[in-house]
Amino acid sequence: MTTRPYNFSPGPATLPESVLRQAAEEMLDWQGSGMSVMEMSHRGREFVRICDEAEADLRALLSIPDDYAVLFMQGGATGENAIVPLNLLGRRPAQAADYVISGSWSRKSHAEATRYGDISVAASSAEPIEIDGREYPGFTWMPPVESWKVRPESSYVHLCSNETIGGVEFMQWREAAAHAGDVPLVIDASSHFLSRPFDIGSAGLVYAGAQKNAGPAGVTIVVVRRDLIGHASPMCPSAFDYANVARESSRFNTPPTFAIYITGLVFKWVRAQGGVAAMDAMNQAKAELLYGYLDSTDFYINNVHPAVRSRMNVPFHLADESLNETFLTGAAEAGLLALKGHKSVGGMRASIYNAMPLEGVQALVDYMKAFEKRYG
Length: 376
Ligand code: PMP
Description:
Blueprint: E1 6-7, H1 17-25, H2 45-62, E2 68-73, H3 76-88, E3 96-101, H4 104-113, E4 118-124, E5 129-131, E6 134-136, E7 157-160, E8 162-163, E9 168-169, H5 173-180, E10 185-188, E11 205-209, E12 220-225, H6 242-247, H7 257-273, H8 275-295, E13 300-301, E14 313-318, H9 324-333, E15 336-337, E16 348-351, H10 358-375
Parallel strand pairs: 1-15, 3-4, 3-7, 7-10, 10-11
Antiparallel strand pairs: 2-12, 5-6, 8-9, 11-12, 13-14, 14-16
Helix pairs in contact: 1-7, 2-7, 3-4, 7-8, 8-10
The protein binds 4'-deoxy-4'-aminopyridoxal-5'-phosphate.
The site of 4'-deoxy-4'-aminopyridoxal-5'-phosphate has 11 residues, from helix 3.
């Protein structure tokens, strides 16, 4: 049982308390080495073990096939917005790629990629749409896979499978892969990585900044099919060339050692909980609890199409927005932190990643109910 407040931050985000405690215990002396992990050579046998175990645990968690490399990189998911085109566009003479724009993060990915090649929009949900007689605002729905315009000459098609700001989650990876044919999917899975099983084999490349569901900021996880490696542009910085990073087991240059260590502890924690299947069940229960309540009242509103509601990031508005500050102040007093929505959309957002227990979501729903009773 935790005595800490429940932290609903979208990232950097709450981590399992046991991971933080273990890191604290090992801070001055990692397993009898006499060194903090922060003080070790990244080429010494201690850190090599930490890094190799992290990779092995991740491979086990996601059943990553052998023909995929696992890379621990720097630069964040924003860095990958450039690193991906710099590595992959050269696969085919057209130097082309297609982007599905389903929210703020995939829009940013697209904008960055346009600097490097012939980039086109495969589909976009930026505009409002009417579905089943109801109007959905931009970035609250997902363009159907069959509508995506994927050019056969493209080197990849990019999508974001969980839009952290809009709260839109997309899991039809297999359908998307079938639709794209020979054009591999590149997926930004930053904000739901390890929250559920992923069918890695349906994607060519999956990347995730660790600081939502997998660890602290500073390490970016890249899982990439090996045949996509080795096509980097001459302009690609060598530290960001997947071929170099893969060949050197993520130690081409000094990697973010402490972030990899903590991320490795989170991988072990997820395994001890029962793996991604257990996370899946828990996250399902948490999301049902929160959305179930949101749907039962007009006091709070979530606009996302039910088929693509994120189980990790739940944006909502108070129908009376003049109560926002009162809501947030009361929440903080009740030990419910970081519920303010992203500045671009306003309102509230509850990020309920793996490390958020069901009790935390229950505490939030209890607070929301009490608030509604008082001000509704
Ligand atoms: N993609 C997604 C889905 C994100 O949620 C974020 C961060 N919120 C990013 C990309 C950008 O990540 P970073 O700040 O690590 O570059």
